[in-house]
Automatic annotation (TrEMBL):
Belongs to the MIP/aquaporin (TC 1.A.8) family. It is a multi-pass membrane protein. The keyword Acyltransferase does not apply. This is Aquaporin-3. Homotetramer; each monomer provides an independent glycerol/water pore. Could also exist in other oligomeric states. It is found in: Cell membrane.
Length: 248
């Protein structure tokens, strides 16, 4: 009885009553989980030389991570998880503009922290695979574990079009799933359907740029690699360099 009373008091003290704070923490936690699973799938594939994962398993990990993240935050913040989706909600007048920069900040912070957690989790593997050098190009580059980079053949214009189409399709698909006037998804299975949507986009449009259809998913980890020692090259574009074209 005494321990139960102490637990209830602790819960009362830790309970967050401010709605905005709850929404921010929900976005932060959900994006953290989303990016941690996504990047870990990529790290496992790359550092094992493809023996313990492939592009298909990495894409599947990312799609399932979306499902888990939506289940985690959907009832609190709506599980935006993506600045592009938050922007779309603002344009459709379904989300207040003043919340937009707050959500984007939380989404970016969550992805940045997740990149750090992935780096810590695969620290030994990354340094072993890279032969002790953190590079953005060459056969042992590891920057692509964290952020997405264009393929050798891709031009800047084609890369821009790739992202517009991929992200646009994602938003259009989510809006269709959410629209109650359409043939409804069974209640509670919406995250599963969104995950399937993400997976279909990844396996059909991932070859050009790696399918970075979430700006926070790409920018937060890219910023982490800059801070962690990969250098400013992670923000620069160069065609035909390394495993794919690189940002130089």
């Amino acid at each position: 009885m005494g321990s139960a009373s102490v637990l209830k008091r602790a819960q009362a003290l830790l309970r967050i009553r401010n709605q905005l704070a709850r929404e921010c923490l929900a976005e932060l936690l959900a994006v953290f989980v989303l990016i941690l699973i996504t990047l870990s799938g990529s790290a496992q594939m790359v550092t094992s030389f493809g023996t313990r994962g492939s592009l298909l398993t990495a894409y599947l990990a990312g799609a399932l991570a979306v499902m888990v993240a939506i289940y985690m935050a959907g009832g609190v913040s709506g599980a935006h998880l993506n600045p592009a989706f938050s922007l779309s909600m603002c344009l459709l007048e379904q989300f207040p503009w003043w919340k937009f920069p707050v959500f984007v900040a939380m989404q970016t912070l969550g992805s940045f922290i997740a990149a750090g957690a992935t780096y810590a989790l695969y620290y030994d593997a990354i340094w072993h695979y890279s032969n002790g050098t953190l590079t953005t190009s060459g056969p042992r580059e590891t920057a692509s574990i964290f952020a997405t980079y264009p393929s050798d053949y891709l031009s800047l214009a084609n890369g821009f079009l790739d992202q517009v189409i991929g992200t646009g399709l994602l938003i259009l698909g989510i809006l269709a799933i959410m629209d109650t006037r359409n043939k409804g998804v069974p209640k509670g299975l919406e995250p599963v359907v969104v995950a399937l949507l993400v997976f279909s986009i990844e396996i059909s449009m991932g070859s050009n740029c790696g399918c970075p259809i979430n700006p926070a998913r790409d920018f937060g980890p890219r910023l982490f690699t800059y801070v962690a020692g990969w250098g400013a090259e992670v923000f620069r574009w160069v065609e035909g360099r390394g495993r794919g074209g690189r940002w130089q």
